[in-house]
Amino acid sequence: MKRKLVLSILFLSILGIAGYWGFQKLGGNAPIEIQLVKSKPESLAGITYRGTPGNEELGEIFRKMETQKGLHPGSFLHTIYEVEPAGKLDTMIVFVGINQSLPISELEFRKFENSSYLLAKIQSNKWVMPNPSTVQEKLSEYATENNLELSGEFIDKIISENEVQVIAPLK
Q1: % of the chain residues with pLDDT over 90
Q2: Residue 162 and residue 79: Cα distance in Å, rounded?
Q3: Which pairs with CB-CB distance under 8 Å and at least 24 residues apart come from 12-20?
């Protein structure tokens, strides 16, 4: 009985250490780098989606914007979640676009008048990347510590599968 308990504890310890090591290797504890950028956020051209998260239309919008990204070298995919869904059947409102200085026909154009913004850089595997509320909380803390006021809008800039930047315009 005592031997089984010792072996169980040893097995669980090894499993826990291996899990933590894997989490670390994927970038699970990578810090969120935040900096103040004293320029306007880039203008975006894209599409606003209103509907449920599982709708095929949302996938089509992402595919269309990926195609636009390919047609405009140097552009990155951006998302702005205006209303985040609480569940699979809740309505969400999300803007999906690419950075563009000039409007593109048939796409909505968003230009930001804010003179500066906070930029959070997150580099880790998509499986261990911090959730949006954690990043927004860190940005809010940084703004409070530096006597800055956020506009309340958060723009996700997808650099790669393992790197995301969050742009938080200041008032």
Answers
A1: 55
A2: 16
A3: none
pTM: 0.80
Between 1 and 77, residue with greater pLDDT: 77
Read off the pLDDT of residues 90-125 as tens digits, 9 standing for 90 and up: 889 999 999 998 888 889 999 999 999 999 999 887
Structural element, H or E, at residue 96: strand 92-99
Token pair of 51, please?
């509907």
Least Cα distance to 72 among 107, 98, 96 occurs for: 98
Backbone dihedral angles phi then psi of residue 138, each to the nearest 5 degrees:
-65, -40
Q: Quick check: 18 and 11 in contact, CB under 8 A? A: no
Tokens found for residue 46? 């894209």
Cα–Cα–Cα angle for 32, 137, 92, rounded to 5 degrees: 105
Cβ atoms within 10 Å, residue 154: 19
Alpha carbon distance 92, 85 (integer Å): 5
